[in-house]
Amino acid sequence: MVSITQLMANDLRNIIRDRILLYSAFVFPIVLVILCRLIIPWISDNVFDLTRYYSLLFMMFAIFFPMIFGFIIAFLIMDERDENLLTVLRVMPISRTSYLLYRIMFIMCLCFVFIFFFPLLSGLIEISLIDFLPIAILFSLFAPILALIVNNLASNKIQAFAIFKMLGSVFFLPLFSFFIAGDWKYILGVIPNFWTFNALEKILTTGSHDGIYLGIGFSVHLIFLGLLFYLFNKKF
After folding, report:
1. Crossing angle, helix 96-116 and helix 64-82, to 10 degrees?
2. Residue 234 CA from chain centroid, whole number
3. With 0-12 CB in 10 A as exposed, 13-18 as middle and 19+ as buried, what is 7?
4. Which of 84, 94, 165, 210 is such that its CA lies 20 to 30 A from the CA of 236?
5. What is the pTM (predicted TM-score) of this model?
6. CA of residue 182 relative to chain centroid, distance
């Protein structure tokens, strides 16, 4: 029986072997931390006061983590599609569904490790790790959603890059909800990370979680995941 540790070791080898994936997984997060810790405060002190926008800047940078790891897992799955590994899995000791569920959990856990400590590393917001825990889980759920969207829509890596660029623009749109008065902002609620951003903003401004934002956030993410997982299984 193929063990989880064997699958994880194989995935890590594939990431390390590919320079783009390696830089995405380990170098780009370091660049984000340096940007938040050194460059943003310097700009705020010497060029333009950005302190009032620190929470928005944190959200903007934080969404990069699920995008990065969604990108990584999307391309690993795409390589396996090209090699017909997903078809071979039908006769392997590990079931195809179990393998795909492992993929989702692997990328979620990898993303969670980075995003959970980002408030401390960035220095842009003050929040306890306990309070940030459900927010970090929501951010992590977003990574497999991105990976599955790309694999459902793209038939090759060139298309995948184009879709990622398009999705990057779409998933930054919820940041504008903080500049929209009244209930009109909920138009952006069809985008999963809208609820993550607003749940985080609520705890930063009131000091307590909003159960509605969190509940809807988890529901929307899980609905997206379930639907995309079903479509992917049906397609491949």
Report:
1. 150
2. 24
3. middle
4. 165
5. 0.88
6. 28
